Automatic annotation (TrEMBL):
J domain location: 9-70
Superkingdom of origin organism: Bacteria
InterPro entries linked to this entry: Diphthamide-biosynth_chaperone, DnaJ_domain, J_dom_sf
Pfam families according to UniProt: DnaJ
Protein name as it appears in the record: DnaJ-like protein
Compositional bias (Gly residues): 85-97
PROSITE patterns: DNAJ_2
Location of region: Disordered: 85-120
Length: 325
């Protein structure tokens, strides 16, 4: 929250004008606390957002900094703000080197063993964002910085969503990279060569199993109802689409996935890890980003561990069929 292109501002969360007096701001905060408190029927996720909003604008000093733009992690919009996993796959076997449009950068002077990585996390969405941003700005318009926060906030939601999802993929990729050399990850994998939008953000193979991971940012709270994600910013059927893409890759590679994982910003989920059962035979978990490493290390409930020759065989099968969007 608040560092995403889709985020509501602190004032919007508190439901008050940005030029309101400090006393009116305080009254709005107290009202929103009562409205959103879980003990009175409110939403726990929104309740936390209200408290976070107050932290950003609740004092004269904090509010002044926020209004100057310092309350947003704006640097994360730009490619240079996205660190990369680097690793053996950064430039091999279908991967490519660092690319300004993808936002993917290897970490300098970091010699820790990292997951073997292939492909560009968030690269497809960043490229789409840049193309559509230039079209939206108008032919011949000079865009000195397509990631300028002021520009991003005035863009259509579809554009902001592309950038938010690219940032989400990059954030998950950094976490996956830190799992270590026992893991292999493929980013932005095409599930259907005819439809670039049908893809797997990450395929993660390690001792705990083989997992398809979807990294999303809907710009607000999300929850599960009848096996699918719902929320103000949720469109389509994210879990259903993820399972369908996973099954397509599984058939092509002749491998069996241990489960699928949907990763959302911490502030947008009420619980850290929610294993919601199976969809079309695939165990499904909805997790906060901070819990992603835990899930991938321990695996999902009932998932079978993979080791030894089987791990090598699954990696070889995937490597032979994986294509990137």
């Amino acid at each position: 929250m608040f560092d995403s292109p889709l985020s509501a501002s602190a004032y919007e969360v508190l439901q008050i004008d940005a030029d309101a007096s400090h006393e009116d701001l305080r009254k709005a905060y107290r009202l929103r606390l009562r409205q959103t408190h879980p003990d009175t029927g409110g939403d726990a996720v929104v309740f936390v957002q209200v408290q976070r909003a107050w932290e950003l604008v609740g004092t004269v000093e904090a509010r002044a900094a926020y209004d100057r733009g310092h309350g947003f992690a704006d640097a994360r919009y730009a490619p240079d703000g996205a660190g990369g996993a680097g690793g053996a796959g950064a430039g091999g076997a279908g991967g490519a080197g660092a690319d300004a449009s993808s936002g993917w950068r290897p970490r300098p002077a970091d010699t820790r063993p990292r997951a073997r990585s292939f492909g560009h996390p968030g690269g497809w969405r960043r490229e789409r964002y840049l193309t559509l941003m230039r079209e939206w700005a108008g032919r011949g318009t000079e865009l000195a910085d397509p990631y300028d926060p002021a520009l991003v906030r005035t863009a259509p939601r579809e554009l902001k969503r592309l950038l938010a999802d690219a940032l989400a993929e990059e954030a998950s990729a950094r976490i996956i990279a830190d799992l270590g050399m026992g893991y292999t990850v493929w980013h932005d994998v095409a599930a259907d060569p005819r439809d670039a939008a049908l893809k797997l953000d990450h395929i993660v193979l390690g001792p705990s199993g083989l997992y398809a991971v979807l990294s999303e940012d809907f710009g607000g709270p999300a929850r599960v109802r009848r096996g699918e994600l719902i929320g103000d910013g949720v469109t389509g059927a994210p879990i259903g689409d993820l399972v369908a893409a996973t099954r397509a890759v599984a058939r092509a590679a002749r491998v069996r996935f241990s489960g699928v994982v949907v990763v959302l910003p911490d502030e947008d989920l009420a619980t850290a890890i929610d294993e919601i059962g199976k969809m079309r035979g695939q165990p499904v978990a909805i997790v906060r980003r901070s819990a992603l490493s835990t899930v991938l290390r321990r695996g999902l409930t009932g998932a079978r561990d993979i080791g030894g020759n089987e791990l090598f065989d699954v990696r070889t099968r995937l490597q032979s069929v994986v294509r990137f969007v």
